[in-house]
Amino acid sequence: MQLKIALLGGDGIGPEVLAQSVKCLKAIEETFNHRFEFVEAPFGAIAMTGSGRPLPDETLALCQEADAILFGAIGALDYDNNPEAKVRPEQGLLRLRKELGLFASIRPIKMFPAFLENSPLKRNIVDHTDLVIFRELTGGIYFGKKTLSEDGTTASDLCSYSESEISRIAHLAFKAAKKRRKKVTLVDKANVLESSRLWRKTVTNIAQSYPDISFECLFIDNAAVQMMLNPRQFDVILTDNMFGDILSDQGSVILGSVGLLPSASVGLENAMFEPFHGSYPQAKGKNIANPVASILSSAMLLQHFGLDEEANAIVAAVHKSFVKKVVTTDVLGSSKYGTDYVGDFISENI
Amino acid sequence: MQLKIALLGGDGIGPEVLAQSVKCLKAIEETFNHRFEFVEAPFGAIAMTGSGRPLPDETLALCQEADAILFGAIGALDYDNNPEAKVRPEQGLLRLRKELGLFASIRPIKMFPAFLENSPLKRNIVDHTDLVIFRELTGGIYFGKKTLSEDGTTASDLCSYSESEISRIAHLAFKAAKKRRKKVTLVDKANVLESSRLWRKTVTNIAQSYPDISFECLFIDNAAVQMMLNPRQFDVILTDNMFGDILSDQGSVILGSVGLLPSASVGLENAMFEPFHGSYPQAKGKNIANPVASILSSAMLLQHFGLDEEANAIVAAVHKSFVKKVVTTDVLGSSKYGTDYVGDFISENI
Ligand SMILES: CC(C)[C@H](C(=O)O)[C@@H](O)C(=O)O
Ligand SMILES: CC(C)[C@H](C(=O)O)[C@@H](O)C(=O)O
């Protein structure tokens, strides 16, 4: 297969972990006789230094024509701590999601038995956790109209959803549940929000056309509780942009392995693959970042194109690195292996 | 002291747990020679059956003239599962908060050493957790304009905040921190939301007038992670209405004792005291609900009026019930004691 892959390293540890994914994809290319063309492009705070814009036009154009995008991470402390910054790196990511129509973020949260002890939760609670969050990614309060009054004393964000935005991701979630344990949980705040009531109404209707899937609804506050008390109860979680942001980060941490989880953001014509974790600027350049989340996101990329055997080869090599304890410090508490070394080990074992 | 206390039992287990608080307050009245006048009023789904309204005018009027309000819980399954209901019980609670100007919900989350093993988190993580959440309660997306398009296919909620709404609760939080471990953490999503940036700017300015308090900011997704990895890092958490809803429920569950935590909702002229937990309709009338959260909220009521000795008497009696294992099933996994018995035990030990 021939694939053109856009590489957006982004900020902080993004470029370092992405480089390890590229090693792995090159190993796949060779072993399985594919042709991958990699094109790097500036994105995030790093792009702002040159162009003043986190998503330069050329970067967007590249992403539009590429078959897929591998993305590292975005965000920098300078902007986080400056509420008055007019432009900020995250806007680049939000615009990219919107322009490419990446309306569904798919975030699998599955226990790695090797790291059961790393979970902050007790073993009997978290063992065998295997769920996937479908987070709506191009609507809601992230993209609603924002206002700041002229005197700067009042600010607002609009959370708006349409039936069609809700139903397209709902169908993805129900279809995914068919191939899994056949359960969908909608998370909303329908006792307070009008937009949540539209979610509940729309998804309840859709559920009727999937009679073999069991369907339930939870308020977000209760979902955050259930995620800690009994994460095994969940199979597919469906939720909006803001709740999905919170719940997926919460979900990732119950595994005790924020550095290990990949995700996919998909639309009708494009797809982007990225780690769960953020840019972690404090670790930048130190060769300590865990490359596994990014490497597994490149496996998700291969899967997206039906290259299951290839994806499995990456996953197997990652598991080998776990067994041999060739992992970064975050996973074991201490380790002599750096980002680079772990990336080499995994790619050489493909 | 003479106090007129409005009693709003509300829905589900609300009235049952509230009745135990009243027993305790009556014991205090007698022992310490106070005069408490209790007046019950309908509220929630139960009030809708009669008047069609979750907050009848007479109930509101009573709350306005009372010195304080003791509240049970609100919410019923019929409404939760009906996204088309025009009126719902929660609206009564939201309106009550707004009409009384209860702009700050204060939710202390402190480990009970006796129940350390109940936490879903590992002991070394959660031990000695002692934080308090200041949640803004009368603004944000809970109260912003809601719309539903005429054809019912688009819905929206507005999240709006003004500087003055933010600063009045921020000052409460900083003042509380002065008497505690001198740290305030603002939780927001300033990398995405305009309203969050107003929070960050306003609170950062206010922080400068409290030079002895250390101040930091966290994004909500990261805060949800930190709450599970290291809750001890927090002293006072300050946040908006929606994030506070999620984070406080998440915080309560790390203690493994959702049935034990009280809260206060305060304004300039009124104050309401209530358990963290919800109406738990499944347990209604079964005499299994844990009354301790409600009983401890009556202790917060006493404290609010400077009756520290009295509040301590309640807390001491609750601790005695822990030591003697006179607790409900939720706490011990199984127990022969019901709601009523536990309430009797605690009130008799005051
Ligand atoms: C960087 C930030 C804008 C982003 C989000 O909130 O969507 C991130 O937290 C994520 O979850 O992908
Ligand atoms: C009942 C509901 C409206 C309420 C809220 O979301 O504020 C509750 O969850 C709470 O936290 O007090």
TrEMBL record, chains A, B:
It catalyses: (2R,3S)-3-isopropylmalate + NAD(+) = 4-methyl-2-oxopentanoate + CO2 + NADH. It comes from the Bacteria. Residues 4-346 form the Isopropylmalate dehydrogenase-like domain. Keywords: Amino-acid biosynthesis, Branched-chain amino acid biosynthesis, Leucine biosynthesis, Magnesium, Metal-binding, NAD, Oxidoreductase. The keyword Transmembrane helix does not apply. InterPro entries: IsoCit/isopropylmalate_DH_CS, IsoPropMal-DH-like_dom, Isopropylmalate_DH. Binds 1 Mg(2+) or Mn(2+) ion per subunit. Gene3D superfamilies: Isopropylmalate Dehydrogenase. Pathway: Amino-acid biosynthesis; L-leucine biosynthesis; L-leucine from 3-methyl-2-oxobutanoate: step 3/4. Its cofactor is Mg(2+); Mn(2+). Its EC number is 1.1.1.85. Transmembrane segments: none annotated. Signal peptide: none annotated. SUPFAM superfamilies: Isocitrate/Isopropylmalate dehydrogenase-like (SSF53659). Belongs to the isocitrate and isopropylmalate dehydrogenases family. LeuB type 1 subfamily. Catalyzes the oxidation of 3-carboxy-2-hydroxy-4-methylpentanoate (3-isopropylmalate) to 3-carboxy-4-methyl-2-oxopentanoate. The product decarboxylates to 4-methyl-2 oxopentanoate. Homodimer. This is 3-isopropylmalate dehydrogenase.
